[in-house]
Amino acid sequence: MTIMTMDSTNGAPQGGSRREATRQKLYEAAVTLIAEQGFSATTVDEIAERAGVAKGTVYYNFASKSVLFEELLRHGVGLLTASLRQAAERSEREGRGRVDALDAMVRAGLVFIDRYPAFTQLYVAELWRTNRAWQSTLLVVRQEAVAVVEGVLREGVATGEFSEEIDVPLTAAALVGMVLVAALDWKSFQPERSLDDVHAALSRLLQGRVSGCR
Amino acid sequence: MTIMTMDSTNGAPQGGSRREATRQKLYEAAVTLIAEQGFSATTVDEIAERAGVAKGTVYYNFASKSVLFEELLRHGVGLLTASLRQAAERSEREGRGRVDALDAMVRAGLVFIDRYPAFTQLYVAELWRTNRAWQSTLLVVRQEAVAVVEGVLREGVATGEFSEEIDVPLTAAALVGMVLVAALDWKSFQPERSLDDVHAALSRLLQGRVSGCR
DNA sequence: GTTTTTGCACTGACCAGTCAGTACAAATAG
DNA sequence: CTATTTGTACTGACTGGTCAGTGCAAAAAC
Q: Which value, to the nearest 10 degrees, does the dihedral of the CA atoms of residues A33, A79, A185, B67 take?
């Protein structure tokens, strides 16, 4: 399972492309192991073994276990926000309303989780922890993702598509949570269902077609 | 913060009430520490220290670190389901509809999380992990909680209050997720808000008053 | 010839779980 | 009433193992 494709972490040109490939293998190994067992329960030896490299290579490429993890986090959330933003923009370019944009983002979220379930698992598990080294990284990264949803909500309120009484930050968080948890449940407890199926159920909930609408 | 009150673990009479008090202290110490740091990163020494007992006492009262954790989980989720069920029943007894029952459960969920934030944090962080000893415990316990919501949804569909096209298990999971994540966000990122405030925002989302209703 | 990776032995901190022993109250015996 | 035993709850030093991170020489890779 390919976890993520590298574009650029820093301004480094290519050339050292072999290194990038090694890093990639390490990310992939780490993300599944940490998702399954948690950060502390996962050993560097395990990560190296699963990636098929020597332990020394891990430390040649990353300063420490937690630095490896932080870079993993940053990268993964980068992919998610890019995907969300793209979905919202595409919907907008096509001239649909904000409701459709929201729906497109729900779908983009599901597609992401479908492709990178381990990353999602790990993200949820670590997000609300306090007292951890990467807490600040995580906070920034969360804000970026939620901000995309907030943006669409705010625009919708401005254009009158959404009710003015909605609480933008809280509603955005709730929406993200809804998709996250529903998708994780889908993957863990009823993996046979199709993405469209899950998307349809969430759309219905989102558009208030559950409780009838008054 | 009182985490939970004991009733009976086995058929033991009272008399050994001192033991119960110690267990209680250990639960409370463990729940916050594990919520903050995760299971593996939390040491038994830390738990003992925060509880104000010697390490040996932990092992006098629990077979192992993970048994302590499992009992903690079971107890906590027991409290949550009881509270959800009670909310649904109360609403039903008062002859309100299923929409109100759902709303009452959302509120009950928020009240629970407000009272036991650490437990909720810990629960979410561990729920989707695989390959862990307490995986089965967690699964059973999750099903119990979600089942309460599913029950109300199913009744609502039967009485025609909810659309027949809703996907009961998935919608139940999404609702639970929505409340869980919104509440954790509330506690972590905007703790100054009132419960009523958060409840109102979620109610609106639940009743489709966000996207206007068509 | 420079960069990257390998393989492997090693260290030192940390930690789950153990165990011999303490404290003390309540029961039993003398 | 005093002495002894028994059971329960707890203590904290100790052990055996685990694991992040190091050091380094030699091999690939480019």
A: 30
For an interface test with B, which of A135, A197, A211, A213 has the most B Cβ atoms less than 10 Å from its Cβ?
A211
Q: Do A168 and A194 have their domain in common? A: yes
Identify which of B128, B203, B114, B139 has the alpha carbon closest to the alpha carbon of residue A119.
Answer: B128
Inside any domain, residue B111: yes
Query: Which has the closest alpha carbon to A30: A49, A17, A7, A11?
Result: A49
User: Residue B139 falls within a domain, yes or no?
Assistant: yes
Contact of A134 with chain B, judged by CB distance below 8 Å, is answered with no
Closest CA of chain B from A81, distance in Å: 18
The residue whose two tokens read 């919907």 is A91
Say whether residue B202 is in contact with chain A using an 8 A CB cutoff: yes
Question: Are B20 and B124 contained in the same domain?
Answer: no
Residues 64-93 of A with CB under 8 A from B: none
How many other CB atoms sit within 10 Å of the CB of residue B91? 22
Measured in angstroms, the CA of A76 and the nearest CA of chain B are apart by: 18
- Pick the residue from chain B with its C-alpha nearest to A211: B162
Question: Can you read off the two tokens belonging to residue A65?
Answer: 């276990």
**Is residue B35, in this structure, part of any structural domain at all?**
yes
User: What pLDDT, in 10s, does the model give residues A7-28?
Assistant: 333 333 334 577 889 999 999 9
Q: Do A171 and B210 touch (CB under 8 A)?
A: yes
Distance CA B119, CA B136 (A): 18
Number of domains in chain B: 2
Residue A196 lies in a domain: yes
pLDDT tens digits for range B155-204:
999 998 888 888 898 889 888 888 888 888 888 888 999 999 999 988 88
What span, in angstroms and rounded, lies between the C-alpha atoms of A68 and A77?
15
CA of B45 to C1' of C26 (A): 32
